[in-house]
Amino acid sequence: MGVAALLIIICHAPSRGVVMPEWLATILGNGGIGCDIFLFLSGLGIYNSYSSYKSKGLSLLQWYYKRYIRIVLPVAFFIVPLNIIYGGDSFGGFLLKLSGFSYLFGKLALWYVSCSLFLYLITPLIHRPLTCKIRWVWLVLLVISSLAFAYIDLGKSSLAHNWQFIVQRWPSYFIGYTLAKEIKEGKKGNIMLFVIMPLIAYSIFFILNHKCGTRFSLFWTQGIPVMTICAILIGRLRSYAVHAALSFWGNISLESYATNVLILPNLIFGFILQLDPSLLLFYVIGTFICIFFSVIVNIISKKIVKIIV
């Protein structure tokens, strides 16, 4: 989680207008694979969560409620004050944004939150196919269907764009969910499955995109091998400082993502210190301020969740 959170913060720098060489902006822009790492890890975690719920005999609504509150509550701490200060939304628009589903309705919002919530909703539908004996067949069908969805002519509306954007990121979640059972049982992964095969898929889709004019998403083919290589390297470092830092980032991963998207563009310290938002220094200082807010919200929201869940 920590590596993914860092990659997301880094990849947003070029889109925030931070001035840098084009080659560096291209490299940092690929940090978007952090979201696909999140989705892969989310697939692993939700499999364990959903399997546990089924074994305990809890109702599906209880499971939905727990998952929903844990992802929406921290984000609400940022959305509410921003709406009070800046306004701009109708009451209905504010409630939609607060629900976490606004991206699915064509709004400019936290796409990862909306994507995750929808994947939680369909998890009971994909659980059996992705855990049965022919789960790999189902996985291939789901991945191909997700990628092919981009080619359905849904028009040029923001609603169509948003749906086609998030559906192409679903393969990471499906792959994580499919592998979760084996990982839970203690079966060791292998380089072929976690590195070689995703890179082969990347090469195939990369060639198709550049030679045949297709527009398949490549992030899901990059996220899993990058995550695996990072895990191996970090494991071999055996550095307490590195593990502690990544654990810290992983703990506030959702909050740091939300503050980077919602809070950082609205910070006024640049005006006070007379810093140009296009400067790297502005982004670095702003990121540290966002970390401060993230830690506070993380602590408060966890205490509230313990009370209401």
Provide structural commentary.
This protein has one domain. By secondary structure, the chain is mainly α. 75% of the residues lie in helices and 0% in strands. The protein is built from 15 helices and no strands. The model has no long low-confidence stretch (mean pLDDT 84). It has helices at residues 2-15, 22-29, 33-56, 60-86, 91-99, 111-126, 135-148, 158-167, 170-184, 191-211, 219-237, 240-251, 253-263, 269-272, 280-308.
Keywords:
single chain; 309 residues; mainly alpha; 75% helix
Query: Per DSSP, what share of the residues sits in E-state strands of 2 or more residues?
Result: under 5%
Q: What is the count of distinct domains?
A: 1
Helix content: over 70%
Principal-axes geometry comes out as globular
Low-confidence stretches: none
Number of helices: 15
Instruction: Give the biggest beta sheet.
Output: none
Structural class: mainly alpha
What is the CA-based Rg, rounded?
Answer: 20 Å
The tally of beta strands, per DSSP, is 0
Straight-line distance between termini? 23 Å
Calculate the mean pLDDT score and round it: 84
Q: What's the order of the H and E elements?
A: HHHHHHHHHHHHHHH
